[in-house]
Write a structure and sequence with these properties.
Blueprint (H helix, E strand, L loop, with lengths): L12 H11 L5 H6 L5 H5 L3 H8 L1 H8 L40 H10 L4 H20 L9 H13 L5 H14 L6 H15 L20 H11 L11 H10 L4 H6 L5 E4 L4 E6 L11 E6 L11 H14 L19 H15 L19 H12 L4 H7 L7 H5 L6 H28 L2 H19 L5 E4 L4 E3 L28 E3 L7 E2 L1 H4 L8 H17 L1
Parallel strand pairs: 5-7
Antiparallel strand pairs: 1-2, 2-3, 4-5, 4-6
Helix pairs in contact: 4-5, 7-9, 8-10, 11-15, 12-14, 12-16
GO molecular function: DNA binding
Protein name: FtsH protein
Keywords: DNA recombination
Length: 553
């Protein structure tokens, strides 16, 4: 196993023992020795199929697994990523029918039920269900089973309470209703849709996403954010060590708060010759299969260091960590001393950016105004920043890993730049006026000779169009070029007939070409009077040749 380092020589028996101990499968030593595996080199040269037949699926998965330092999340909403393993009955203890199952069924059932929903959605679901219970109790109804009368009764309370997410309360009620074994009828679906329509009618738009206006970032962004943190008297334990570079990187990669906290040093890769940086994005609740993905951005510095350059922002962080000898693959990139940033630290950074980049003074805001900026502020700010920069919304959707039209809630009106739209309309109007002006001047100065030339140009254009030089079918036997049938797509090839009606070229050997090939003459019957002058003898020979060719075909 080349991915497992060992101190001993890889051709010795000690190296085999060292590799098996490192992977936690030292109990397989006897089986491997009996199969002739006596060193790490012998083990590496065994195929997976051979090892699988010797060790089984469970032991093989442990043997080839890349040992990574387990992430120790300090946030309860960080998803758990399990190491790769091949699905196998041996893992359940069912490989041998004579043996009993080794899986803890109670634990397996509990994990299965818990993972139906993300960790972060469990508390909101419980809260909605408690609200449903309270509303049903206030109207004198039992919470289950759900009925049309219950939907209408609870809906009236939700409407009076100005609930915007009424559909989610009905959704949790339906889920509990079906889980309890009650049928859900079409009448109940109709009542629910009508209730949601009534509750949301005239409720008004939702609160818009708050932008950070990254274009207003000062040259010394990191120092400015630290000064703002001092002004707001933020405790030291709530400050991130690299405030400016973290804000820039989070905005460029459109990171959620949980993703900012979960980025490790090994997730960043630089291609210095191309001035590119790649971030292997950690998994989140929307990535249920824990597949992850990578995104790459380039340096944007032109003629000097740009404050919002994501390449240099991440390079500054990595350089600082290495200079302090604090860089470790498993260390968290944006945290203090390699620890995972907390949700409060990320939210505090967003609020410092709001003060540093805000156009209004902090004294003009209310005391709770800064609470509106939270962990998702960088995702919103990055999406609107890219949209104002002219990046297509589809590209922003790809960068941000949006799988639906939710991106429009983030971009909002940023994609519509009034100045750019006004400039485009002004240019269009200017071109139209210039065309109209030139046409008017031409009509005022036009002479009879110009009119005659213009008519001749029209005749030439009509003649050129009627020649139908799009494609010609050439008869190699008669050396004549014909106009093909205008309805080829609607007819069988055996029915293809030239425009002159004398050659079925669909069942004969023919050559198609846009221009008249050398040595061929154009069929006058196909092209009419606009065709080049041909002698009458050529016409006669053409007709007889076509007839003979058609007959021979």
């Amino acid at each position: 196993m080349l991915h497992v380092p060992c101190v001993s020589d890889r051709y010795t028996f000690a190296s085999l023992v060292e590799v098996l101990q490192a992977q936690g499968v030292v109990h397989c030593l006897g089986v491997l020795r009996s199969a002739g595996v006596k060193s790490a080199w012998d083990l590496e040269n065994k195929s997976k199929s051979e090892l699988r037949s010797l060790l089984g699926d469970v032991a093989l998965d442990a043997l080839v697994a890349v040992r990574k330092t387990r992430r120790t999340p300090s946030r309860p909403d960080v998803p758990v990523v399990h190491p790769y393993a091949r699905g196998s009955l041996q893992r359940l203890g069912l490989g041998d029918p004579s043996k009993a199952m080794i899986v803890d069924l109670a634990k397996a059932d509990k994990e299965f039920l818990e993972d139906r929903f993300a960790r972060t959605s469990r508390a909101p679901r419980d809260s909605r269900w408690k609200t449903w219970l309270a509303l049903c109790s206030s109207r004198g109804f039992q919470p289950l089973p759900v009925t049309v009368e219950l939907i209408n009764a609870v809906g009236s309370l939700l409407k009076a309470g100005r609930y915007r997410s009424a559909s989610q309360y009905f959704a949790i009620a339906k889920s509990k209703h079906v889980e309890a074994g009650h049928p859900w009828s079409q009448a109940m679906d109709l009542a629910r849709s009508q209730a949601v329509r009534s509750i949301t009618r005239g409720i008004g738009p939702s609160m818009p996403k708050l932008d950070l206006h990254l274009e207003l970032a000062p040259a010394m962004l990191d120092e400015t954010l630290k000064a703002v943190a001092n002004r707001l008297r933020i405790p030291t334990d709530l400050r991130l060590p690299f405030m400016g570079p973290t804000a820039v990187a989070a905005s460029w990669f459109l990171l959620r708060g949980i993703e900012i906290s979960n980025v490790q040093c090994r997730d960043v890769t630089f291609q210095c010759e191309l001035y590119q940086v790649t971030l292997q994005l950690p998994v989140s609740k929307v990535d249920t299969e824990a597949k992850g993905c990578a995104r790459t951005h380039c340096c944007v510095c032109r003629g000097g260091r740009q404050t919002l350059c994501v390449f240099h922002a991440l390079l500054d962080i990595v350089t600082a960590l290495r200079s302090r000898q604090a860089w470790r693959p498993e260390a968290y990139l944006f945290g203090c001393e390699g620890l995972m940033p907390t949700a409060r630290q990320v939210s505090t950074l967003a609020r410092c950016c709001a003060v540093a980049l805000g156009q209004a003074s902090l004294d003009e805001w209310s005391s709770g105004a800064l609470d509106r900026w939270a962990q998702h502020s960088f995702r919103v700010a990055g999406a609107q920043f890219l949209a104002r920069s002219g990046v297509d919304v589809a590209v922003i959707q790809l960068i941000g890993r949006w799988g639906s039209n939710a991106i429009f809630r983030y971009v909002q009106t940023a994609a519509f730049v009034p100045e750019r739209a006004a400039c485009a309309v002004a240019n269009a109007l200017g071109n139209q006026m210039s065309h109209e002006g030139s046409a008017c001047s031409a009509s005022r100065t036009r002479t009879p000779s110009d009119t005659k030339d213009f008519r001749q140009m029209v005749r030439d254009l009509v003649s050129e169009c009627t020649k139908s030089k799009d494609v010609l079918v050439h008869n190699p036997r008669t050396k004549f070029a014909h106009k093909p049938s205008s309805s080829e797509s609607a007819l069988d090839s055996s029915c293809w007939l030239t425009a002159c009606g004398k050659w079925r070229y669909g069942i004969s050997r023919c050559v198609r070409n846009v221009d008249l090939l050398p040595g061929y003459q154009a069929c006058k019957n196909c092209f009419g009077s606009v065709q080049l002058d041909e002698s009458s003898s050529a016409d006669a020979s053409e007709e007889s040749a076509c007839e003979s060719s058609d007959g021979s075909a």
